[in-house]
Amino acid sequence: MTSDPFISVVIPVFNEAEILKESLSEIMHHAKGATLRYEIVLVDDGSTDNTWEILRGLSDEAEEIKAIKLSRNFGKESAIAAGMEFASGDAVIIMDADLQHPPELLPDMVHLWKDKGYDIVEAIKTDRGNEPFSSKLGARLFYCLMSRLTDLQLDGSSDFKLLDRKVVDAQNRFPERSRFFRGIVSWLGFTKTQIPFTVGERAAGKSRWSVIKLVRLALQASTAFSSLPLHFITMTGMLTFALSLTLGVHTLYMKFSGFAVSGFTTVILLLLFIGSAIMLSLGIIGIYISRIFDEVKGRPRFIVEKEINFEKKRDEHR
Predict the structure, then answer these.
(1) How crowded is the C-beta side of 101, counted as CA atoms within 13 Å?
(2) Which DSSP helix (H) or strand (E) runs through 39?
(3) Could you say which of 139, 172, 207, 271 is the most buried, measured as most Cβ atoms within 10 Å of its Cβ?
């Protein structure tokens, strides 16, 4: 590695046409303050607006800007994976395009990696900014759930990270198709440090993370790193058995005492409880089976339709 390292900044984008020029100008300004040798790798995750046309124009103006276009919308996790596979840098920084990840932290992140020797520099949210209360509550519940289900401490974590080349190479070797980037980075180990930041204002537009997408991400993340939900089924079964045993003893006592149990309320409630427990258990098992099904098919995590400015190989930057 030379005294001035080569840095890759990976940015997944989806329908970001109205903010790309402004945000890229800001990101490139701070990237130059971190190192003179860098590339910006933008991953168009199947945008339906003119994001790709803007990327082509920007890449003609600056050779540091490189872009790949996925054949459809594969999701942010797949877009990050694609960017990391195409990135050539001695270190790779992953960040969003909407400036909520402050670009002014880039020099500090590179300094901690280059001069202090950390393999991973994580940007941690200390203030979620002007996010709606429902989003803040949902995030807190999600991180609380993850900490209970797994050994991973992800409170305040974000996708805004710097990874050393060896960390990137290690992650690129992961075979699974369904990924949770933050969890994988935490699981990998290596020497790491944290740098706090306040979530900035979006350059334009609104967040595209709907409640359904957030719930899907929570299910994906929790089942990717823990089998504890499956053990909930066993615990539910034990609870149901204990309640059934208690009710059975009570019913026999009433029968031999000469008292009849009036009405069908007890029977109906018991059937509803057992039925709900069975359906919940089947649902949890179904989630894990669907993950197995996706992995067994072995389909690629993403498909690249087009790419720009990737003629140079990684070794040419060394």
Answers:
(1) 25
(2) strand 37-44
(3) 139
Q: What fold characterizes domain 6-208+300-317?
A: Spore Coat Polysaccharide Biosynthesis Protein SpsA; Chain A (3.90.550)
Distance CA 304, CA 125 (A): 32
- How many whole angstroms separate alpha carbon 9 and alpha carbon 215? 28
C-alpha torsion sign, points 158, 62, 13, 207:
positive
In angstroms, the first-to-last Cα distance of the chain is: 6
What is the pLDDT tens value at each position of the chain, 318 positions in all? Answer: 457 789 999 999 988 888 888 889 889 888 888 888 889 999 998 888 888 999 988 888 888 899 999 999 888 888 999 999 999 889 999 998 888 888 989 999 999 998 888 999 998 887 666 666 666 666 667 666 666 666 666 666 788 999 999 999 998 888 877 777 887 888 788 898 988 888 766 655 555 555 566 666 666 666 666 666 776 777 777 777 777 777 767 766 766 676 655 555 666 667 777 777 787 778 778 777 877 877 777 778 888 888 888 865 444 443
Compute the distance between CA of residue 191 and CA of residue 144 in angstroms, rounded to an integer. Answer: 24
Place of tokens 């089998």: 227
- Is residue 80 classed exposed, middle or buried when 0-12, 13-18 and 19+ CB atoms within 10 A define those classes? buried
